[in-house]
């Protein structure tokens, strides 16, 4: 299939925009790959330290026999249900590596926090910057520089982007990402949301809410809704950094272990002495565009309009929200998974999953097929699915959709445009996840109600002060203000108001991860209020218009009055100086140095 002209045009403008920085990045990769292997290049004391902890047989192999040595970077902890399965992965990987004539070491670990635990708490202010901390942790692990390739173990929100950024700063290494899969389905996401809304209205108590939450989050594996964690997995598949269709096979199964072993075999196949495919060469502008198309086609997490900008920058590639917006005009919505549908990721997998989506996009000319991946068969191989059998597994082609209410072909999409849109206007630039918002809510025009925190909005809701049409403006939530926390606690009260028939919307310089569900939410507003952004000018009662159809976000105040207004200042209680405790002070430097959301909220540029 011929590549769609819009996809070609966006790719070319990214390539041109990134020409110098990409060339410099590839030059560094070439320089690093021309060196001797670490055990031959380093001093004897360095080498002895590097391998002293290995079993004697492995130590002899890697030093004397010069076999490949694989580095494992793991984000394992058992606080995260999604990462708990990784406990046994290093032993599986080492066993498989030995069977293939190689060795493997756990190079290091990275932190991994659960946003589900920290939502609405001070810990959430560390969440976004944990991404760059994870990237630095991955870099520290790989800095021992004795590895021929790397296996990255991580799944959740900031963990995959952080590992990917770290890996790309070691772009000369062949690298494979290793997923662990979603938990089995529990209480449906729809029923869970209903109980949350009931709790917000005081119709059920903590006991009933706790029971519902524990039925929803009940076992090892990722949460089953299509948030950032599972969007991460879709994007890695589209980038060709996974074993094909490995993302959504549940933990604890024989097939899951076989796919982990296949990841080791896959890495062995792209080492320098074989079909050399370092990650910095795989992740080029075509690969990034493929990830963007997959995100749009599945109505994935809005967080990736921040994270993948940072990922691309790590490979010397410059993308922006205009690129997403242009692609969204031609990439159709092919799946509906909660919150933009009722199905969970297990139903998505059963309906065809990542392989189905990638095949449909390739066949429609909406993804680049001529790309390098970790598999010899290229991106087309990512359309195959693994099937468990006696003594292992086999691959089969993805067939037709197993459920047209979950996955549809590109010829009959849920929507002709992608699930995300860019908004522009005198309130700045923002993004909105339209795939979950009813058509009659794509345009909201109502008076503003300004809040300085999500706690302030929750108190107003509890006091019965929000029973009217309104656009809720929640400011001082950007990267520099407080680390740009996700504002998930706003979803239940706003959903309740919408359910009562009020026309409501959210406008914020914070994040929602697409978890705003069916409430229209203009998020990531840039520039943020603390950086002099126009949200700092908005006052209670100003008429605000959010128009997802036209792609506009405006305050309807006469231009002369608007231009003459002074910006409000961030309340002293919310400033960096007051934000002490729970480790927040350790991230003050990151807040001060963070780029804008559209620039990836990077702290290392």
TrEMBL record:
A GO molecular function held by the record: metal ion binding
Domain Dihydroxy-acid/6-phosphogluconate dehydratase C-terminal: 406-601
Cross-referenced Gene3D superfamilies: IlvD/EDD C-terminal domain-like
Cofactor notes: Binds 1 [4Fe-4S] cluster.
Dihydroxy-acid/6-phosphogluconate dehydratase N-terminal domain segment(s): 68-381
Annotated positions binding [4Fe-4S] cluster: 156, 223
Swiss-Prot/TrEMBL catalytic activity: 6-phospho-D-gluconate = 2-dehydro-3-deoxy-6-phospho-D-gluconate + H2O
Keyword hit for Repressor: no
Superkingdom of origin: Bacteria
Keywords assigned: 4Fe-4S, Carbohydrate metabolism, Gluconate utilization, Iron, Iron-sulfur, Lyase, Metal-binding
InterPro entries: 6-phosphgluc_deHydtase, Dihydro-acid_dehy_C, DiOHA_6PGluconate_deHydtase_CS, ILV_EDD_C, ILV_EDD_N, IlvD/EDD_N
One cellular-component annotation, GO: cytosol
Pfam families: ILV_EDD_C (PF24877), ILVD_EDD_N (PF00920)
Membrane-spanning segments: none
Cofactor requirement: [4Fe-4S] cluster
Stored PROSITE patterns: ILVD_EDD_1 (PS00886), ILVD_EDD_2 (PS00887)
Family: Belongs to the IlvD/Edd family.
Biological role: Catalyzes the dehydration of 6-phospho-D-gluconate to 2-dehydro-3-deoxy-6-phospho-D-gluconate.
PANTHER family linked: D-XYLONATE DEHYDRATASE (PTHR43661), PHOSPHOGLUCONATE DEHYDRATASE (PTHR43661:SF1)
Stated name of the protein: Phosphogluconate dehydratase
């Amino acid at each position: 299939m011929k590549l769609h002209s819009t996809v070609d045009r966006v790719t070319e403008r990214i390539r041109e925009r990134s020409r110098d920085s990409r060339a410099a990045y590839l030059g560094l990769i070439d320089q690093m790959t021309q060196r001797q292997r670490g055990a031959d290049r380093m001093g004897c004391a360095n080498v002895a330290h590097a391998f002293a902890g290995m079993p004697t047989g492995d130590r002899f192999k890697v030093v004397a026999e010069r076999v490949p040595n694989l580095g494992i970077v793991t984000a394992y902890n058992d606080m995260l249900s999604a990462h708990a399965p990784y406990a046994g992965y290093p032993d599986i990987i080492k066993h498989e590596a030995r069977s293939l004539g190689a060795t493997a070491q756990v190079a290091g670990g990275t932190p991994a926090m659960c946003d589900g635990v920290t939502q609405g708490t001070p810990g959430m202010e560390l969440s976004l910057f944990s991404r760059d901390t994870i990237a630095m942790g991955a870099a520290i692990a790989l800095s021992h520089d004795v590895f021929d390739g790397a296996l990255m173990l991580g799944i959740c929100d900031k963990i995959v982007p952080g590992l990917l950024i770290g890996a790309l700063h070691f772009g000369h290494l062949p690298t494979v990402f290793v997923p662990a899969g979603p938990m089995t389905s529990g209480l449906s996401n729809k029923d869970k949301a209903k109980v949350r809304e009931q709790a917000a209205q005081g119709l059920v108590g903590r006991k009933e809410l706790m029971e519902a939450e524990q039925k929803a989050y009940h076992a090892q594996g990722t949460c089953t809704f299509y948030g950032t964690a599972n969007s991460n997995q879709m994007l890695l598949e589209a980038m060709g950094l996974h074993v094909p269709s490995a993302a959504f096979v549940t933990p604890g199964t024989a097939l899951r272990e076989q796919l982990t072993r296949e990841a080791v075999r896959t890495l062995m196949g792209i080492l320098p002495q074989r079909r050399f495919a370092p990650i910095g060469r795989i992740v080029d502008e075509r690969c990034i565009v493929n990830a963007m198309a997959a995100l749009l086609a599945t109505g994935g997490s809005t967080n990736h309009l921040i994270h993948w900008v940072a990922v691309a920058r790590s490979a010397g590639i410059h993308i922006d929200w205009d690129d997403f917006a242009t692609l969204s005009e031609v990439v159709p919505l092919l799946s509906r998974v909660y919150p933009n549908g009722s199905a969970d990721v297990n139903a998505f997998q059963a309906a065809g999953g990542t392989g189905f989506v990638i095949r449909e996009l390739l066949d429609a000319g909406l993804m680049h097929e001529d790309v390098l991946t970790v598999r010899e068969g290229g991106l087309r191989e990512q359309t195959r699915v693994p099937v468990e059998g006696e003594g292992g597994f086999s691959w089969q082609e993805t067939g037709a959709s197993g459920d047209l209410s979950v996955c549809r072909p590109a010829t009959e999409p849920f929507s002709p445009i992608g699930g995300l849109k860019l908004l522009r206007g005198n309130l700045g630039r923002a993004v909105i996840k339209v795939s979950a918002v009813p058509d009659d809510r794509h345009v909201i025009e109502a008076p503003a109600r300004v809040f300085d925190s999500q706690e302030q909005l929750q108190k107003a809701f509890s006091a019965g002060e929000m029973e009217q049409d309104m656009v809720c403006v929640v400011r001082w939530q950007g990267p520099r203000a407080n680390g740009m926390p996700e504002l998930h606690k706003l979803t239940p009260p706003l959903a309740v108001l919408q359910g009562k028939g009020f026309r409501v919307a959210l406008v914020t310089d914070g994040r929602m991860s697409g978890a705003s569900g069916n409430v229209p939410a203009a998020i990531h507003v840039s520039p943020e209020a603390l950086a002099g952004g126009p949200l700092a000018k908005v006052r209670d009662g100003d008429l605000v218009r959010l128009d997802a159809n036209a792609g506009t976000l405006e305050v309807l105040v006469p231009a002369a009055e608007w231009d003459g207004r002074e910006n409000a200042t961030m309340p002293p209680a919310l400033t960096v100086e007051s934000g002490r405790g729970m480790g927040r002070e350790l991230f003050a430097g990151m807040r001060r140095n963070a780029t804008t959301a559209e620039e990836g909220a990077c702290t290392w540029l």
